[in-house]
Description:
Largest sheet: 7 strands, parallel
Order of helices and strands: EEEHEHEHEHEHEHEHHEHHHEEEHHHHH
Strand content: 15-25%
Radius of gyration: 21 Å
Shape: globular
Number of strands: 13
Number of helices: 16
Amino acid sequence: MTTVQNGKLEQGMDNNEAGRPESICLLGATGSIGTSSLQVLRCNPDRYQLKTVCAGRNWQRMLEIVREFKPAHAAMADPEAARQLAAAVKAEGLHCEVGAGEDAVCAAAALEHDFVIAAIVGAAGLKPAIAALGACRRMGLANKEALVMTGRLFFAKAKEHGCPILPIDSEHSAIFQALPPVCAEHLGVCDLKAAGVHKILLTGSGGPFRERPLEELPNVKPSEALCHPIWSMGPKITIDSSTMMNKGLEFIEARWLFNAGPDDIEILIHPQSVVHSMVSYIDGAVLAQLGRPDMKTPIARALAYPERVVSSVEPLDFTAMGSLTFFKPDFARYPCLKLAIEASCDGQGACVILNAVNEVAVEAFLRGRIGYLDIARLVDKMLQRGVPAGFDECSLEDILALDAAVRVQAAKLLEQEF
C-alpha cells in the first residue's frame, strides 16, 4: 500500500497485510474501463473488495455487477435507470443501497474507500472524481477530462486531501513506469529536467484512417470510425482516437501529470500499439513500457503500486510480434491533435472549450448530424471565440460554468452553420 507523507508516495503495510481486502470504488462501472477493472478484481478476490459502483444508465449491466460482487452501494446518474436497478435489487433480495442522479453518484464517490477508479467518460466524470478526492486513500485516474478541464485545481485538491493520483491511461501508465522514482512519486510537481529526462515520447496508434487518402476523409461514416484497428473502447473515445483528439487530450493530461512543458513531449504514431510510451534521457537512454494493448495492465499497475498483481493479460511473445514502426503525426490528417496542443499552450480556459466542443461535435457526428471533418471545424470555430474575460481557472464554479455555456453555444453554431 502507498500512503502520502510530505506530498510523496510512500510504501507501507496495505489492508491485505493487515487482514482485510482494500475497499474499491468503481466510477464508470459499466464502461470499457469498468469492465476491465472488474476482471482485475476477479483475479485478486482476496486483495480487493468492491464496495461502491457508479454508472450512467445501463442498469441491466449494473445489476449483473451487484449480483456478482455484492457491493454495499450503487448509484446511477440516470434516475429512471436507478429506479429500475433498485426495483430489481429488491426483487432479488440483494443487499445494496441504490442512489439516483448525479448528486447520488458524487455522494457515493465521496464515501470512504481505499482506492477509487475514476473511469466515467468525459466531463461527466469530473465532479465525482473531485468528490472522491476528499475520502479515498488513493485514486487511479482513467478520466483524462478531469485533468484537461481542471489540471491545476485537481492536483491542488488532491494535495489538500493527501490523495495520491496514479495514472490508468495506458500511455500515462507507461510513462509513469519509465520515469525515475523521484518523478513517479511526485506527480503534478516533478522536475523532469532535474531527473535527467530529455523528453516524453507519447505514442498513439493513429486510428483507422492513418493511411486513408486525405481527400476521402470527408466521406468517413460513423460506422467506419467506430472500428478501431487495435483497441476495444466506448464510442466517444473510439471516435476521438480516429481524429487523434484523444492523443491531444492525453498530451494535455501528460503536461499536468508530469509537470511538463509543451516541448517536453513528442507524439509518435505507433500502429502496432505495443510500445505504450517511452521516456528519453539526457544520456541517450530510452526506457519504454511494452505490453499487449489491454487496459487491464495499467489498471492492475495502479491498483497494486508499488507491487504488481495478476491481471489476466498474457505476456508478449516477441518471436511472433513482427516489426514495430514509428512516425510523426501529420496535422493535415489530424487537425484535432493540432488544436489540442495549441489549446494546452493557451491555458485552462482553452482546454475547457476544446473538451466541451469536442464532446458536442462527436455526439453530432455519431448521430449523423455533421461530417467527420466537421468535428475539427466546430472545435476550431469555438476556440477562435476565445475565453471569456474574468475566467478563473482555479474556480471549479467558473470551469463548470464555462463548460456549460460552451456546449450551448456549440449547439447553436451547429444549427446555424453545419
